[in-house]
Amino acid sequence: MQPTAIKETLKTHISKVTTLTDEQFDYFFSHFQYQQYKKGQSIIAEGSMVNCEYFVLSGCLKSFFINDELKMFILQFAMPTWWASDYNALYAHTKATVNVDCITDAELLCLTNEDREKLCRELHNVEYFFRWRTNKGYVASQKRLLSFMNNNVKYRYEELMALYPQLYNMVPKNLIAAYLGVSRETLSRLYNP
Amino acid sequence: MQPTAIKETLKTHISKVTTLTDEQFDYFFSHFQYQQYKKGQSIIAEGSMVNCEYFVLSGCLKSFFINDELKMFILQFAMPTWWASDYNALYAHTKATVNVDCITDAELLCLTNEDREKLCRELHNVEYFFRWRTNKGYVASQKRLLSFMNNNVKYRYEELMALYPQLYNMVPKNLIAAYLGVSRETLSRLYNP
User: Fold this and answer.
1) Which CATH class is domain A3-133?
2) Where does the Cyclic nucleotide-binding domain start and stop, copy by copy (chains A, B) (predicted)?
3) Matching CATH number, B3-119, of 3.40.50.10140, 1.10.10.10, 2.60.120.10, 1.10.3430.10
4) Closest-CA residue in chain B for A117?
5) What ipTM describes this predicted complex?
6) pLDDT digits (tens, 9 = 90+) for B7-47
7) CA A95, CA A112: separation in Å to the nearest integer?
């Protein structure tokens, strides 16, 4: 992605929520570090310290963990203009309890915890932006929990595809199954009975 | 609860996170409305518009929904110094998809959506406080989702009791079961086999 396009992607994203002057945005943007990753590459590994959150410019990430029986659970996908990290570890300064890696090649903007907090202190509108963003994440997480408790796999699959149709092409079916908390076979059976 | 105690409870809660001058806190506090509820009384009913969030002074609340088969799912308990609402409805200005009611008699401080947003605009430290609070809620919600996907009922029951030992006395066992997503009988069988 060209430098101008990188900057514009973040600017468009922020300006949907709050207003920064050009000078303020340049200052804000100067705290982000551009990073490129290859498909399959790890961004956050369980057990490591977490000091950054990531804004997705291109590609698709997954945050996941693998339990004692080696079953994978996917907590979240992250597509362009989404944010990803292990927020529990990031905010609490503890070791990661989940992994984040790349489903496809990906371009990211990395922001450290210290820089986010500094920017929030210095620019009230940036604090507003991050409050808004966490509100959205919180609500999505509550909705997912409710759906997980109440709905069957078929319903949740259709809900997911209706909400994020782009996942259908970007994400292999075994990962969709791991997001829904079922095996690839169970998911297939629903659609090729 | 005495007026002085009400004010002190909120002040102590806020001051754990941010600093407001006495004048700022008085202004902040003036936007809250004190409310008393009886055990079993409804605070938010599914299908109604939601315009407030609630800070718990005393007592215990539950947020829940009941599915088509009349099975109750508990999304969250709220004990003293916790906050509760249907945040999805509150932020999106839509109708409630969950209910909130009182497990015990309860005293609450009610803050409207408009007043929260006004206070956040006017006082940067208040914006910081609410960002911090939502971050905590988001992380708790993600942890609960992970635990729901990965752990069995016995583990989740013990995790809940270790995290919030006060629930054991405040909340009837059938509600604990509804929080864990199982029947009262299943929960009993684990502890009286």
Assistant:
1) mainly beta
2) 35-121
3) 2.60.120.10
4) B128
5) 0.91
6) 999 999 999 999 999 999 999 999 999 999 999 999 999 99
7) 15
